[in-house]
Design brief:
The structure holds two protein chains of two kinds. By secondary structure, chain A is an all-alpha fold. Helices cover about 85% and strands about 0% of the residues of chain A. Chain B has nine helices and ten strands. The chains are: A mainly alpha, B alpha/beta.
Chain lengths: ~260, ~280
């Protein structure tokens, strides 16, 4: 359908909020130090980007994100698949998973500071722990949820264990695993910023904490905007990757909906 | 004796006193009362019965996908406990039995990937099977790009590539429109004329059973029992119009229908205790 039309319709509420925001300030409803007008925030942005101050923080945050996410993704996929394919492991670990998973991951930050200090290792550990769950559970349930008929097909074709796993179960579970990866990547970014906000010296979270304390309000808002853009960009990247790699899945599910 | 097949040492397939009960917690459902029958080499045997009479359960037991509660299934005299080689099952829900991430050709090749054939031979067999069902030219497409009828043909092609000596078909044309169904019935008969192998075909459509089969078994509602057996003496090749208007066709159909009706009347009448069975 028309993607341009969707974009215009999507931008409308954003423009409305920005307009109200600007109008509220011009009428003196809110103090400028608490909430700078969007025009001031947008004016601050390019300067911060050019000076290299923001890009440096972005890179720090992104590196922690990438390391934590990579760790979570590899351990999560491996463990999830192991639990799915080896019932004994699944039974052994499911209680541990059920107990640990519902705990809000930010609660691990004090523990991580105790263990790793205030450096990057702490951040990566916190990110990896929080981002582990979606990818682990989606790998596990992605495989467990494979259409039972396909198990029948594999058995009548005498594919054997390895071929059943590699040629039926993994490809069939891949869309669910991909969704898990995307959710994990988002959680990894949340935890990266949160950890920096609480205990970071560098990174976007630290920048936010610093500008907030120093009452550099419009810079702080520019920082928030940067975090939002980063989240949006990373999500778009994952969606684009899914579309490429899992084109068959879109086709198949579109057919079902029709 | 049924028309045609059935020589050799013994039957190809033998089902002896097959009985199946499903138990989930407190509930106990008797799906199959007791079934005993044989399928000869090259025979086309149709089993016809009302929906939900345990026909799918029967095929799953014959295919080795499900264990009977008692009784046994013998394929060439060997008890079936796991899916045996040489047997292929065409599922009713074709959409779920195909791999949406594989192309048409890839889906057919899957049937041969458990074997030891070299790659070129597998490729050749798969293409040959696709040609037989009229799907040549579609090998690069994906299943979800095909119509329901074509997807079911793809499933049949997969079974043909495997060169099953017995093909089990679970209401394969049940969800297709009448025209596509007639087309696929004829294609199945045409393929059978040139390819050896028996077919055990399960359906709730009496006319379809008579049209296709050498012999028809009529099965009662759950728990399934055989209530009638009819060898079908209609000439082959069969023809959608000539065969279906043949007086004998109408006789077979009426005979089966009568059996099913008296059966169900007896069941419905019994609880009332008026004994009004014919």
């Amino acid at each position: 359908m028309s993607r341009g039309g969707g974009l215009v319709r999507g931008a409308l509420p954003v423009a409305l909020v920005l307009g109200l925001w600007e109008a509220a300030l011009r009428n003196g409803l809110v103090g400028r130090l608490r909430l700078p007008p969007p025009s001031a925030v947008l004016a601050e942005w390019p300067g911060l980007l050019v000076s290299g101050e923001l890009p440096g923080h972005v890179l720090t945050t992104l590196r922690a994100w990438a390391e934590g996410f990579a760790l979570a993704a590899s351990v999560g996929v491996a463990l999830g698949l192991l639990m799915a394919f080896v019932p004994a492991v699944g039974a052994m670990l499911s209680l541990v998973v059920e107990v640990l998973r519902p705990m809000p991951s930010v609660a691990t930050i004090p523990l991580a500071i105790q263990l790793f200090g205030l450096g990057d290792a702490m951040k990566v550990a916190v990110i990896a722990y929080a981002a582990l769950w979606p990818v682990l559970l989606n790998s596990l349930y992605g495989v467990r949820g494979v259409e039972p008929r396909l198990h029948d097909v594999a058995r009548t074709f005498h594919l054997g264990w390895w071929r059943t796993v590699s040629r039926i179960l993994l490809p069939a579970a891949l869309p669910v695993i991909a969704t898990g990866l995307r959710v994990s990547s988002r959680i990894a970014l949340i935890l990266a910023v949160t950890a920096e906000l609480v205990a970071g010296q560098r990174g976007l979270g630290a920048f936010l904490a610093e500008t907030q304390l120093a009452v550099r309000t419009s810079e702080m808002y520019a920082g928030i905007l940067t975090v939002a853009a980063l989240g949006f960009g990373l999500n778009a990247l994952f969606v684009a990757l899914e579309r490429r790699v899992l084109a068959w899945h879109r086709g198949a599910t579109a057919g079902e909906a029709a | 004796m049924p028309a045609g097949p059935g020589r050799g040492d013994g039957p190809l397939l033998e089902v002896q006193g097959l009985h199946k009960v499903f138990e989930t917690g407190e509930r106990r459902t008797e799906a199959i009362g007791s079934l005993t029958f044989r399928v000869a080499e090259r025979e086309f045997l149709a089993i016809v019965g009302p929906s939900g009479c345990g026909k799918t359960t029967l095929l799953r037991c014959v295919a080795g996908l499900s264990r009977p509660t008692s009784g046994r299934v013998l394929l060439r005299g060997r008890p079936v406990e796991e899916p045996p080689p040489g047997l292929m099952l065409v599922f009713q829900d074709y959409g779920r039995a195909l791999c949406p991430w594989r192309t048409i050709l890839g889906n057919v090749l899957l049937a041969l990937e458990g074997g030891r054939l070299p790659r070129e031979a597998r490729q050749a067999r798969a293409l040959e099977a696709l040609r037989l069902v009229g799907l040549n030219g579609f090998q690069g497409h994906y299943p979800w790009e095909l119509s329901g009828g074509m997807q079911q043909r793809l499933q049949i092609a997969r079974a043909l590539a495997y060169r099953a000596e017995i093909l089990l078909m679970d209401e394969p044309f049940g969800s297709l429109d009448a025209l596509t169904r007639a087309e696929l019935e004829d294609q199945l008969l045409a393929i059978r004329a040139s390819h050896p192998g028996a077919i055990l075909f399960v359906t709730h459509d009496i006319e379809e059973a008579v049209y296709l089969a050498d012999r028809v078994l009529v099965v009662s509602p759950r728990p399934a029992e055989i209530v009638a057996e009819l060898p079908i003496g209609l000439p082959r090749p069969r023809h959608q119009i000539r065969t279906r208007t043949d007086p004998r066709f109408v006789e077979y159909r009426t005979a089966i229908l009568t059996r099913i009706w008296t059966q169900s009347e007896a069941r419905h009448a019994a609880p009332l205790g008026d004994g009004a069975t014919t």
